[in-house]
Amino acid sequence: MSESNSNPDRMLTMELEREIQQFLFDEADAVDSRQFERWLEFFAEDLRYWIPLRKNMPGKGKHPDVGGDRDAAWIDDDMETLRKRVAQILTGVHWAEEPPSRVVHLVTNIRIKPIQDSADHHVFSNIIVHRNRLETESDLIVARREDKIRRAGGLLKIYRRTIYLNHHTLTAKNLSFFV
Amino acid sequence: MTMQRAHALLTDDAGEIDRRVFSDPDLFQMEMGKIFNKTWLFVGHESQIPQVGDFIQSRMGVDSVIVTRDREGTIRVLLNTCRHRGMKVCRYDEGNTRLFYCPYHAWTYDLSGRLVNLPHAENYESFDKARWSLKQAPHVTSFRGFIWATWDEAAQPFEEYLGDLRQPLWDGLGPWDGGDGEVEIISGTLKWIVPCNWKIIAENFAGDPLHEPSHASVNRVRLGPGGRRDPLGKLFLTHFPTGHGFVVEQFDPSVDRGFYAASPATAEYHRISMQKRYARLGERAGTPLVLGTVFPNAAIHTSQPRTLMVAHPLTADKTEMWRMFFVDKDAPQEVKDYLRRYYMAYGGPGGMTEQDDMENWTYAFQATLSDNCRTLPFNYGAALKMQPLDTQIAGTVSAELMSEQNTRNYYKVWAACMDKD
Question: Which of B72, B263, B295, B297 is found 20 to 30 A from A39 (Cα to Cα)?
Fold first, then answer.
């Protein structure tokens, strides 16, 4: 969760900063407005979409409070699995999302750092995700997010998304919506 | 309260069950004493505490417990409450330590739960430290690395509690190749809260093949060639006198089934392992457990996926689900990686199979709360009069798969526990 990949030598133009911010807002808009096929276009084929577990560990010393790379996680998807999740929602018989939940993403605190020795960017943001479903069932998910973004064929694509939930034990009954 | 209070809520040989079973707070309170303080409960796996001093925080019913490996290498299960003022003496999920230090008044305990230090000890009159140890589960057992504990001093041994389930569960919790190797828990336990009664979750895994419509969407988008998994052989339900219920599969173990085709390394490892399994276990390799519930609240998928769930009761209307995944310890890393991702796409709150279960359980449970709804019993009548099948498969086997024999048996055992003095 550190931002040590920053490279002070490479300048970030205001134009690029704006473009990446706009890209993230558009991405959130695509998923919140249920344009799932369009939403998938924001991701690269070599995607890892990862939501690790959080742990209660001693604050002193080297005890990561985030699940490791090869540990159990809430979500650890490649592009194929992410496509299946979209297809599942679109079946119309995915009862956890039928009738559909209402979901809103707030994306804030965006910081953009060029990744060393590459043209890619490391984009840090904080998110609040609200889901309401059926009548009063509501979930609020708060997280820190790290995206790695590259330009391919003129288009920005997210190839690595890591979402550090601020939650230990999840109070949402499921994660059938996209955090 | 009559002696047969719980049985009175089941009618027609448990073919109908009163909805109060799932939501009456008094019954919930009784369950804590008569079920969770009496039966064997799953608390963790040895691979989570391999070294002396290792511990994990776990749960038994509504209680927090610490599972430790003490100086002698013995596994201890300790009630996580200081004997002085009740504060939790361990608030970390896992770690390695010599002592558990209470942050309130500094009473301090060792890995076996013994009180080893308290400030101002001289101000207590003839203080007997031995009387003020952490409460410890009197019986703890490791069954192929899976750790179970009970609060009941007089409990029957765990293997007796399993009864005829012992052999198939032993086979199901070992490595794919049927040898003496080990499985390991993939580090990290998924923990989440579902607003429904714990038994709705436990019964779902005890053998309820009629809930297949829940999983229509995942079967349509396919996590494997058979829907959410590879195609299974012929399925049977089997249940046991102590309440456990499982789904068993029957197939020809001499024929390779080409499982895990999406991952060539996994497919190859599975194929070779299954050949060895057949050579070791013979025909027994052809009737493995698929999934089931060890009474009261531990659900185990033993073949595909391989995962263990505990439905920890919080209140009558709230349950904390814990799910962990396991793999052969000696499997190649590539195989472990593939299986880990498949298991997570399948189960847990993000799992494409389990998501739909939580939706159904939540809103089915809501309809156990009103007096009006409570005039209508739940129906468990599928294949009520069917005679058991005579077969080599352990337990009482249903002649009809689309049967509710396992869930009926589960609630009959539940009622027997509840009505016991």
Answer: B263
Instruction: Please report the ipTM that was assigned to this predicted complex.
Output: 0.96
Q: What are B234-288's pLDDT values in tens digits?
A: 999 999 999 999 999 999 999 999 999 999 999 999 999 999 999 999 999 999 9
Q: Three-class SS of residue B128?
A: coil
Question: What topology is assigned to B7-38+164-419 in CATH?
Answer: Naphthalene 1,2-dioxygenase Alpha Subunit; Chain A, domain 1 (3.90.380)
Give the separation between CA B318 and CA B196, rounded to whole angstroms.
5
Distance of residue A101 Cα from the nearest chain B Cα, in angstroms: 12
The domain at B41-140 falls in which architecture?
3-layer Sandwich (2.102)
B206 to B123, B289, B300, B309, B394: CA distances (angstroms):
54, 12, 9, 12, 15
**Using the beta-carbon criterion (under 8 Å), do A88 and B218 form an inter-chain contact?**
yes
Token readout for B173 is 């919790």
Which residue shows structure tokens 């391989």?
B306
Q: Which helix (H) or strand (E) holds B419?
A: helix B405-419
Which amino acid is located at B207 in the chain?
Answer: G
Determine whether the interchain pair A53/B190 forms a contact, defined as Cβ–Cβ distance below 8 Å.
Answer: yes
Total Cβ atoms within 10 A of residue B161: 21
- For B236, phi and psi rounded to 5 degrees? -135, 155
Decide if B226 touches A, using CB distance below 8 A.
Answer: no
